[in-house]
């Protein structure tokens, strides 16, 4: 496994490869867990080489304290990468990525407008920019993103389609703890009580899925149902509960066969997001 720490090193490594092996790429911010491992496994099974990037990207954090508090576990991450047979780990410093500060941005499309777009101004502009920079460095055939960050996946798909990037974007199902909480690097920052309370998110989403299977189709009623369930947990503070069309994340009145409900919920100073796809029973 080779460790590369600048765009120039990454370019040199890509040029040194014999032939043109298919490259699967898994971009992360590190603090790896089983969710990231699922992405690595899928990339390994579908490509000749896998590149993992670990970069806590300052331009996608709209709150400095969140950037500073983001967990960093590099030694452990490298062991996990090795274990999964990763070929190259791309781990540039902030200075290597942004030697001139940040003056050029990639403007994300309409998929970035709702939900996270409202609560985290500038977040998806940072994501679109860093993903573009990483894609230019790694030049992957396929890139793997978790459905846990459903809106991020939609923003990246829209960007790749509209900017004619020749990269297949693959969405991977969310990996969860036994109690249903979606795995996230941020979970380690939850207090013990908040960690115990947080599975209410998944519980509320599963209830909504059952309600839809029983015939509920009104999007506002589904949002209300989820909000009420999360509201039974006094430690939870809801930021949004939104039913959207999976295709473009437009808010809908009624669900159709491609709907997804996304939520953001605070526990103390930790912000958790989750979602569930909703399917009509017929
Ligand atoms: P992050 O390091 O949090 O930026 O995440 C890197 C990638 O891993 C993103 O594509 C995430 O959507 C994905 N990811 C994070 N958590 C999970 C999870 N629980 N299950 C599947 N993928 C995940």
Helices and strands, with pairings:
Layout: E1 2-4, H1 7-16, E2 23-28, H2 34-46, E3 49-54, H3 64-69, H4 74-83, E4 88-90, H5 94-97, H6 116-119, H7 123-138, E5 142-146, H8 150-162, E6 168-172, H9 192-197, H10 200-213, H11 219-231, E7 236-245, E8 259-267, E9 270-278
Parallel strand pairs: 1-4, 2-3, 2-5, 3-4, 5-6
Antiparallel strand pairs: 7-8, 8-9
Bound molecules: adenosine monophosphate (AMP).
How would you describe this protein?
With 282 residues, the chain is α/β, with parallel strands linked by helices. It contains eleven helices and nine strands. Helix 7 (123-138) crosses helix 8 and helix 10 runs antiparallel to helix 11. The chain has two domains: 2-172, 3-Layer(aba) Sandwich (Rossmann fold); 188-278, 2-Layer Sandwich (Pantoate--beta-alanine Ligase, Chain: A,domain 2), CATH 3.30.1300.10. The longest helix is centred in the middle third of the chain and has 16 residues, at 123-138. The strands form two sheets. A six-stranded parallel sheet has the order 1-4-3-2-5-6, with helices on both faces. A three-stranded antiparallel sheet has the order 7-8-9, with helices on one face. Adenosine monophosphate binds at residues 28-29, 35-36, 38-39, 145-146, 148-149, 172, 174-175, 182-185.
